[in-house]
Amino acid sequence: MPEFEIQHITRYIYEGPVRDSANQIILFPIKDQFQDVIKQELTITGNPLVDTHIDYYGNEVGSFTYSEPHTVLTINSKLWVTTKHRELPVNDIFPAHQWEDLKRLQFMVPYIDFLKQEYFEGIDELKAIIEQQSQNDDTPYHVALRFCQYVYENFEYIKGVTTVETKLDEIWKLKAGVCQDFAHILMEMLRMVHIPARYVSGYICTSKRNGMRGEGATHAWAEAYLPDYGWLGIDPTNNCIANETHVRLAVGRNFSDCSPVKGVYKGSSNHKLEVAVSVDDENVLNNSDAMIAEAHVTNIVSDAPKNSYQRYMEIIQQQQQQQQ
C-alpha cells in the first residue's frame, strides 16, 4: 500500500496591505476504500478558523476569513496519504448490455451533471472523429482508453497558452494546453457517447521523478463511469489509468468545481502568486522557503481599479497555473 508525503504551498504577496481576505479551499483529499489520509497539517497566515462542509459532489470544502491587514497570505498544506491499487475493469459482459446500462443513467441523479455536453464550434468535427474511431464490439472501457490515447497523441502539452477561462473552442483550435484542457476535451468526448465523465483534481505521486507530466504541481484528469465497475480514472496528459499513484483532492463537472484555492479581498489588485508542490522529498517538505524558491510565480499587475468580482475572477484564473 503506497504512502505519500505531499506539501502544497499557495502564497499571495500583495503590493500593499490588504484586509478581509475571504477564501475557499479544496485541499482535503478524498477518503474512500482506495485512498486514506493518515494526517494533514494545514497552516494559514493569521491562524484563522477554517469551517468545513461537504459539497454536492462529496468534496470537503474549507472556508476562512483573515480580516487583519496583511501583505502576505500563505496557505500551507502537508499531507500523509495512503492509496490502494484498484483492479481494472473486466470486460466479461456483452458490450450491448453495457451500453444499454449507460442509457438508463441519462436521466438519473447524480449522473445527469456528468453527461451535459458543452457546445463549441468544433463539435461536428469532433463527432466525426469519434465515429471514425468507433469499432464493432467496443465496450465503454475500450472507448474510454481509445479517447484518452487520442487526446494524448493529438494535443500538445504547452504551459501558458491557455487559462482557466479558455473555452473548448480555443483549446480545439490550438490543439494544445495543459492537463486541465486535456481533461476537458476527454470529458466532452466521453459525454458525446453517453459515458458519464467528471473532472478530478489532485497530485501525481511517484517515488522518483519519471518524467510524467504534472509532477511537482497539482494535476487534473478525468473519470469515466463504467457499468458494473464505477468510476475509472483516466489521465489523458500521460495516457494512463489514474490509479494508486494519483491522489485525488476533488471531483466535479469541470475545473471551477475543484479549484484548490479561490477568494476575494479588499485592497490593491496588484499582487504576486507563488505555488509550489512537493512529493516525498523530506528535505523540501521541511523547508517551505526552498519550495517557494523553485515555485511557479505569477505577477498580477493592473493600473485600473477593480471591483471585488474582477479580483475574484483574476484570482480564479491564476489557479489554472497550479494545474500544469
Folded structure, characterized:
The protein is of the alpha+beta class and 324 residues long. It folds into 2 domains: 3-83 and 258-322, Sandwich (Immunoglobulin-like), CATH 2.60.40.2250; 95-253, C8orf32 fold (Roll), CATH 3.10.620. 24% of the residues lie in helices and 35% in strands. The protein is built from 8 helices and 15 strands. The chain has helices at residues 95-103, 123-133, 140-154, 168-174, 179-192, 282-285, 288-293, 308-319, and strands at 3-25, 35-44, 51-54, 60-66, 70-83, 156-157, 176-177, 197-204, 218-226, 230-235, 240-242, 246-252, 261-266, 271-279, 296-300. Strands 1, 2, 3, 4, 5, 13, 14 and 15 form an 8-stranded antiparallel beta sheet that branches. Strand 3 and strand 4 (60-66) form a beta hairpin. Helix 3 runs antiparallel to helix 5 (179-192). The longest helix is centred in the middle third of the chain and has 15 residues, at 140-154. The radius of gyration is 20 Å and the shape is globular.
